[in-house]
Amino acid sequence: MGPVADNPDAYIAALADWQRARCVMLRAAIMAAAPFDETIKWTNLVFMANGPSILIRAEDHRVLLGFWRGKRLRDIDPRIKASGKYELGNLVMIEGTEITAPQVARLAAEAFRLNAELGNPTART
Prior knowledge:
This protein has helices spanning 8-13, 17-33, 101-118, and strands spanning 37-41, 44-48, 52-58, 63-67, 81-82, 89-93. It has 125 residues and is α+β, with helices and mostly antiparallel strands. A six-stranded antiparallel beta sheet has the order 1-2-3-4-6-5.
């Protein structure tokens, strides 16, 4: 699980080394891509847009970039693996995983668009 934090800034501040640098980049790219609301939920940094859209979770030796509609984003980045309920998908990163801010921004913009178009991914239909 990620660090226990009361707010997104505290979450980032609790990280060290490559994980802090990676999470700073991910967060900045996501926030630059679309007008997300960020919060802490389930000990993760979560980006909301008409429901949950993206999460960042720093673990002992990896960082997860999760998308509630991740299965629909695999054409942008095939490293996203399906996971759990809804249309969840995660991109698992270790220290040497290569990803750029423009790649993250493209994923984030599409995740935002999908939630705007399709609604809250956790709402029962």
